[in-house]
Amino acid sequence: MRGVPRLVRRGGFAKALVVGAALVIVGSAYRALMPNGAQGADGPQSQQIDEGRRLFAVGCSSCHGLHAEGGTNGEGRVTGPSLIGVGAAAVDFQVSTGRMPAAQTGAQVPRKPPVYTTDEIAALAAYIASLAPGPAVPAQEAYDVSNATQAEIVRGGELFRTNCTACHNFAGRGGALPNGGYAPSLMQTTPRNMYQAMLTGPQQMPVFSDQVLRPEDKRAIIAYLVALQQSDDPGGFPLGRLGPVSEGLWGWLVGIGLLVVVAVWIGAKVPRIGRNRTKV
């Protein structure tokens, strides 16, 4: 009977030893396999997320909820959608173009000068990205078209006319949409924002994921739009690049209008019959 407690003690010690060894092995494996870019709790990434959380609580939580879960007013009307899972790219697009924070709700939020600085936008994007996986901010090489070839520009034009002209028109000048919405002109949009818009589908725009439009296809479309931005108008006014519609309207309003004015002026100058005839 004296040997039983000794066996129990030995068994307990062996279990503790096995658990401790397992913890050491798991910890070592995690450290070996941990990504190089991973940061500790007090690393720069954590500090950026904390800053983004603070900025979000001050400037965004009144509409989107304190934890980005979405907000409603006292009548149950949605004031801001949930941002959980939208990703950093959506935040970067909306805030860098000044669409967020929105001055007021409406059919569509217009573009305006941004409220936050570049670092603050990055912090907000990092905070939202930490809540759930979503599209990340693209790297510069994804939308850099400074060395795009003519073949890429031509292919981008074909892709743009197939997927985008129904809303933005073939020249990227924008157009009207139902229910008070509109597709904005792309003539002032940066390549970075173009890529992010295709990736996230802001407002009424559909999402063009990498499965729908490959990254090289997105880059080709951006190359086409940048070529349009840099093109000249040797014929004079672009007139929205709408072709015979705007040109015909200009002809009717200006050309025929001038002819009518000239005809009235000539009629006023011709003396009427009998105006200067002497009385008998």
TrEMBL record:
<protein>
    <recommendedName>
        <fullName>Cytochrome bc1 complex cytochrome c subunit</fullName>
        <ecNumber>7.1.1.8</ecNumber>
    </recommendedName>
</protein>
<comment type="subunit">
    <text>The cytochrome bc1 complex is composed of a cytochrome b (QcrB), the Rieske iron-sulfur protein (QcrA) and a diheme cytochrome c (QcrC) subunit.</text>
</comment>
<keyword id="KW-0408">Iron</keyword>
<keyword id="KW-0677">Repeat</keyword>
<dbReference type="InterPro" id="IPR050597">
    <property type="entry name" value="Cytochrome_c_Oxidase_Subunit"/>
</dbReference>
<feature type="transmembrane region" description="Helical">
    <location>
        <begin position="249"/>
        <end position="268"/>
    </location>
</feature>
<keyword id="KW-0812">Transmembrane</keyword>
<keyword id="KW-1003">Cell membrane</keyword>
<dbReference type="InterPro" id="IPR009056">
    <property type="entry name" value="Cyt_c-like_dom"/>
</dbReference>
<keyword id="KW-0813">Transport</keyword>
<keyword id="KW-1133">Transmembrane helix</keyword>
<dbReference type="InterPro" id="IPR009152">
    <property type="entry name" value="bc1_cytC-su"/>
</dbReference>
<dbReference type="Pfam" id="PF00034">
    <property type="entry name" value="Cytochrom_C"/>
</dbReference>
<feature type="domain" description="Cytochrome c">
    <location>
        <begin position="47"/>
        <end position="132"/>
    </location>
</feature>
<keyword id="KW-0679">Respiratory chain</keyword>
<feature type="domain" description="Cytochrome c">
    <location>
        <begin position="151"/>
        <end position="229"/>
    </location>
</feature>
<keyword id="KW-0349">Heme</keyword>
<keyword id="KW-1278">Translocase</keyword>
<keyword id="KW-0472">Membrane</keyword>
<dbReference type="InterPro" id="IPR036909">
    <property type="entry name" value="Cyt_c-like_dom_sf"/>
</dbReference>
<dbReference type="Pfam" id="PF13442">
    <property type="entry name" value="Cytochrome_CBB3"/>
</dbReference>
<keyword id="KW-0249">Electron transport</keyword>
<keyword id="KW-0479">Metal-binding</keyword>
